[in-house]
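Worked problem 6 (solution included).
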Amino acid sequence: MLILRTIIVILFLLITSTVHADNGVTDRKIVIGQSAAFTGPAAQLGIQLNAGAKAYFDHVNAVGGVFGRKIEIVSLDDKYEADIAAGNTKQLIDSDEVFALFAYVGTPTSNAALPIFTKAKVPFFAPFSGAPSLREPFNKLIFNVRAGYNDETEHLVDRLVNTGLKNIAVFYQNDAYGKAGLAGVERALKKLSLPIIETATVERNSVDVAKAVDRMIAKKPDVIIQVSAYASSAAFIKEMHKRSYSGQFYNLSFVGSQALSDVLGNQGPGVVISQVVPFPWSNSNAVVAEYAKVMNKAGVKDLNFSSLEGFIDAKIFVEGLRRAGQNLTREKFIAALETMNTKNYDGGGFDVNFSPTNHNASKFVDMTVISKDGKFKD
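Solution. The predicted structure is:
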């Protein structure tokens, strides 16, 4: 009778643990979902970000995963279009096979996913966006790793003004991302009592910049801050050069630094880009050294800012899983991430500061410039 009771209790515990287990978690794996651009004019953003993240996940899986669970990432292509991202998000969540959403690319796409994952109570980790809409109001499900666009634009504007450049214009993508960046520039300039002398727009996933070029050439700004992805930004720079513009171009990190340099070719030198992760070729930085080693082992020789960001995102995500313990749930994962800060987590040169009231890990911003060989200088 005692043996029978013991068997019944064990069966009951197994059944109840299965019933209460969160979606996407089994004894052998943890499945996470991603919607990002993998085709179209913004494809390199998704491809590079995913490459860095997958390299780290594969590295962790090769040594047994997290408490014996391997991490699988299901990536869907949204072409950097909000309606497709919304559909992908619904598909991922409705499949009941995803524990969390990871590394979405873009503000309009992340904004489209926001009400869906919020309703479903699924964690949304490390979007490739600095938009205020993903930071305010506070959403317990959203964890931002990169600095916000307000942090980037303030750093960028301060640098410009300190070098004596005050005749500033903005070329921006006509969507939530572009408008968030524009607002950040306006906010930063207002603190210095400086105006934006001109603005011009481009549609998302378009390289039709003719009207924008006409507007900018007429005002001849000293510097143009660009808030768009690499294809449209490169098209704009090239057309401005054709019109003999000799001013400077500054870009936010979302542009996709390596992709921008590749598209610009010999017109890239001198273009400035703000960055929200350390310099990917810095041997003195511990997390960068780890990134280079893991990428090299994965057979990836082309290092860049976007894949480093994906790598760092994955590394922090895995640390959250480890802190959550063997009996993983979404609530435990969220609570675990909220314990991570510079006092108890060594980010290897990339500081992380989460708390129960703050889900924005970093305010790190640096400036880089494309050099004559198409590479970067910090």
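Discussion: The radius of gyration is 22 Å.
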